[in-house]
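Incident log, support desk, overnight shift.

02:14 A customer reports that sequence design results differ from what the structure should imply. Their input is reproduced verbatim below. On-call engineer (initials T.W.) acknowledged and began investigating.
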């Protein structure tokens, strides 16, 4: 297992346009509890506001993750 700082694809609520957009979330363990936070520095794909103030609704399925270990045809 590597120290994961890659971010996971997630649905993120944008507080500016109140839409749900795709972005990256980081798992964060605090006080023994794991939660998801928005990876800093992202912009909303709809209104281009910073997503830092948004929040993670849910992660996308494993198959949509960039580093998923899905089988690739050689
Ligand atoms: Zn937005």
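02:41 Re-run completed on a clean worker. Output:
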């Amino acid at each position: 297992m590597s120290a994961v700082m890659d971010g996971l694809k997630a649905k993120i609520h944008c507080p500016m346009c109140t839409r749900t957009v795709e972005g990256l979330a980081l798992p964060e363990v605090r006080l023994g509890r794991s939660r998801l936070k928005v990876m800093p520095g992202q912009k909303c794909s709809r209104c281009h506001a910073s997503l830092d103030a948004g929040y993670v609704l849910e992660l996308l399925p494993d198959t949509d993750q960039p580093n998923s270990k899905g089988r690739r045809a050689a």
